[in-house]
Design a protein that fits this description.
Blueprint: H1 4-22, H2 34-40, H3 50-59, H4 61-68, H5 73-84, H6 86-89, H7 94-99, H8 112-129, H9 134-144, H10 148-160, H11 162-168, H12 172-198, H13 219-229, H14 231-238, H15 241-259, H16 263-277, H17 288-315, H18 317-327
Helix pairs in contact: 1-5, 4-5, 8-9, 8-10, 10-12, 12-13, 14-15, 15-16, 15-17, 17-18
Length: 328
């Protein structure tokens, strides 16, 4: 018998590729995207972000090769299917697994980089909630390198839920290695962000920044500039679709904090989501697919259980009579 999920996933792949012909998209379609410059110009100089940019180039190298050789965008869509495919194999509950097929259509409306960091957070949180193979956590770690904000999120979950991650996925030694790698790689991006928010003109280029320059910054100026460049503030000013998506995500995650049995996990998700709303970048948006999918799966399972109980009540004669008496 054919597995229904695998059949739907295969149909989703075919539908995505057909739509990609009509609405082509790629990793570097947005020419103004700073990520394009970071990746395509790596190896051309040394600064505090050089190592991270090189790693990002390695993570998305299939897309880089296709871009440099001016290949059709449909080939990037095929590569994206390969990057999304591990989602098909990860262990979750049944409802969440079926809803994960939405990942195949996410690249039609957002950048490929946004899709990949969503995959990273999705796998990370599934690794906390469910036992999975070590490969998935390492894969999520690689994808997290595409965004400094997502790296911070990854690091915070490694610190907070290291016991569950060790139990479900990897041992203590490997968890410590992940922690140290993230700490080292984050030093450059954090320093550059602080200096950039302090003076975007003077410290716009990573080559102009240094660790010693942090001692001369003004905290109030940094906080003010961070707020004005935050993803929530910019979305509110422009009143675009992203603003309403961010509000819906907030509603979903707060609902899960109240009703889900994994309150500690979703409290951390909610806290980090709210914090990253006031920063630029992909930190807040990287939670989107997991939050919406888990919210949908949670209420779908809740209504299924309620319907099952009501149907069982009416099938049982004594239960039905008891139900009628309760209504008098």
């Amino acid at each position: 018998m054919i597995d229904r999920y695998k059949l739907l996933f295969f149909c989703g792949i075919v539908a995505f590729l057909l739509l990609s012909i009509l609405m082509p998209n790629g990793m570097f379609t947005a020419k103004s995207d700073g990520f394009r410059w970071q990746v395509l110009s790596s190896f051309r100089g040394l600064d505090i972000l050089s190592n991270l940019h090189v790693l990002r180039k390695i993570v998305v190298y299939p897309f880089v090769w296709l871009e440099l050789h001016s290949m059709p965008l449909i080939l990037q869509s095929l590569v994206m299917v390969l990057y999304v495919f591990p989602i098909c194999c990860i262990k979750t509950n049944r409802s969440l697994k079926f809803l994960s097929i939405a990942f195949l259509f996410f690249p039609m409306i957002v950048s490929y980089r946004t899709v990949l960091v969503n995959i990273s957070i999705y796998i990370l949180l599934c690794s906390v909630l469910f036992p999975n193979k070590k490969f998935f956590l390492w894969y999520a770690l690689l994808l997290s390198l595409l965004s400094s904000g997502v790296m911070l999120i990854f690091l915070s979950f490694i610190i907070t839920f290291h016991t569950q991650i060790m139990k479900n996925n990897v041992g203590l030694g490997k968890t410590i290695i992940i922690f140290l790698v993230l700490c080292v790689l984050l030093m450059g991006p954090v320093v550059h962000k602080l200096l950039f928010f302090y003076d975007p003109i003077k410290y716009g280029s990573a080559a102009d920044t240094s660790f010693s320059a942090v001692a001369n910054v003004d905290v109030i100026t940094i906080v003010s500039n961070i707020y004005q460049r935050g993803v929530f503030y910019e979305s509110f000013e422009s009143k675009n679709v992203r603003f309403y998506l961010l509000l819906f995500n907030l509603f979903c995650v707060l609902s899960l904090v109240l009703f889900s049995k994994y309150k500690k996990i979703f409290m951390l998700v909610a806290l980090e989501y709210v914090v990253f709303l006031f920063f630029e970048g992909l930190g807040a948006l990287s939670f989107t697919v997991f939050i919406v999918n888990y919210f949908s799966a949670f209420w779908l399972n809740s209504f299924k259980s309620l319907f099952k109980n009501i149907r069982g009540l009416f099938k049982n004669k004594d239960g039905f009579e008891l139900y009628l008496c309760s209504k008098k």
